[in-house]
Amino acid sequence: MEKVKILAIVFSIFLIGCFASTRSKLRVDPDGFRDIKWGTEISTLKDMERMEQDQSSNKDLVWYTRKGDLLAIGKARLENILYSFWMENFEGVWIGFRGDENFDALKKELFDRYGKVLESEELVKKMDEEPGKGPSSIRHAEEFYAWWGQNTEMTLSYSRDRHQGTLNINSKRVSDDRRAYEKRKGK
Q1: What is the pLDDT of residue 65?
Q2: Is 49 exposed, middle or buried (0-12, 13-18, 19+ CB in 10 A)?
Q3: pLDDT tens digits, residue range 86-114?
Q4: What is the Cα–Cα distance from 121 to 138, expressed in whole angstroms?
Q5: For the chain, what is the HEC assignment?
Q6: What is the C-alpha separation between 107 and 102, in angstroms, rounded?
Q7: How many other C-beta atoms lie within 10 A of the C-beta of residue 5?
Q8: I need a labelling partner for 87 at 20 to 30 A (CA). Which of 10, 105, 122, 178 fits?
């Protein structure tokens, strides 16, 4: 039951982030992550290690780790960096981290590089002020930030209660292609 609550909170925050003013245009719009450009074919990268996947998972989306990857962004220490390839083309990264210090360092680094967005607490306050609604159930549970560019979509979320968070960075083009493909397939 606790897992369901956490997933519901995270999903709610994500939806709020998608539709509310917590998103901002990227000041600098990267065309990939580190030295891998969006859409790069996995066959051209020699330092990637395929991860084991559940038999029921989408066969077109494959996850990798990178040998010798630096598990840091700025002063933030990372738990892992997972690279996703859809139809063998680089689509994005999922980065996990733990601890308030790492979240604060990562948030500062992202704000410095890509621009500041509306603070999560300001969003919660706006939600609380809406007529007919009680206090938000997400207060202090999550912090969520999102940036959108022509090439890249990026979201940073963190749970101070659980002391863990994620940074997702995706190719807008490859992600749009995947969604269109899956819609045509009827998924």
Answers
A1: 97
A2: exposed
A3: 999 999 999 999 999 999 999 999 999 98
A4: 10
A5: CHHHHHHHHHHHHHHHHHHCCCEEECCCCCCEECCEECCCEHHHCCCEEECCCCCCCCCCEEEEEECCCCCEECCEECCEEEEEEECCEEEEEEEEEECHHHHHHHHHHHHHHHCCCCCHHHHHHHHHCCCCCCCCCCCCCCEEEEEECCCEEEEEEEECCCCEEEEEEEEHHHHHHHHHHHHHHCC
A6: 8
A7: 11
A8: 10
- Tokens, residue 118: 């509306």
- What tokens does 21 get? 């003013």
What pTM was estimated for this model as a whole?
A: 0.76
